[in-house]
Amino acid sequence: MTMPASTPRVAMISGASRGIGAAIRDRLAASGWQLSLGMRKPVDAGDALVHAYDTAAEDAEAAWVDATVARFGRIDAIICNAGVLVGKSVVEVRDAEMEEMLAVNLRAPQRLARAAWPHLAKTGQGRVVIISSLSGIRVASADSGAYAMTKHAVTALAHGLRHAGWDQGIRATAICPGYVATDMGKSAASDTVDPSIMTQPADIAQTVQFALDLPNTASVAEIAVNWQAEGRL
Description:
The protein is of the alpha/beta class. Helix content is about 40%, strand content about 15%. The chain has six helices and seven strands. It has a seven-stranded parallel β-sheet with strand order 3-2-1-4-5-6-7, sandwiched between helices. The model has no long low-confidence stretch (mean pLDDT about 95).
């Protein structure tokens, strides 16, 4: 059954308190979406549902989905934006550091998709957007290697979700940016890179909205976004 088109669409956004997540939040709110925001440290966000969301907590995703459905009665999209970066090579990274990145960057989006799946399917045009990285489709340096392992995996998750949900009208897109002018992006970039020339959070928010608004007949599985000319990307 397809949900009535006249009802405002509902999106869940993880990591929505700052950076890319905040830009996505503001863009979708201005476009009339109803929002459920998962934040480790909740902040006021107007009419949105703000839910304390800790990826390490047992059943965190299921509890957030339940709270969203209780408030809005539906879920049309999930936007998995929360992420962590440890800038080490695959040789240097320690087990605890790798586990933290895998937990936040990969396992949390997979669990959120699983918990929200029946509600996404019910709409007939559910959307999953995963904020991956250019590190999810190439490895640019030794120091990005461990992070790239997790982002390659989450890009594969987006592709797997697209296949799993195709017949139910669920479409999934991995958005893969290079350096974005956020706290994380600025800390990862060289000191010689001017943040004003990096991709801006609002650019990614615009790309997210593009993916959400595509019809079922025009699915885009992967979108690479770069601030510089870089090989095939």
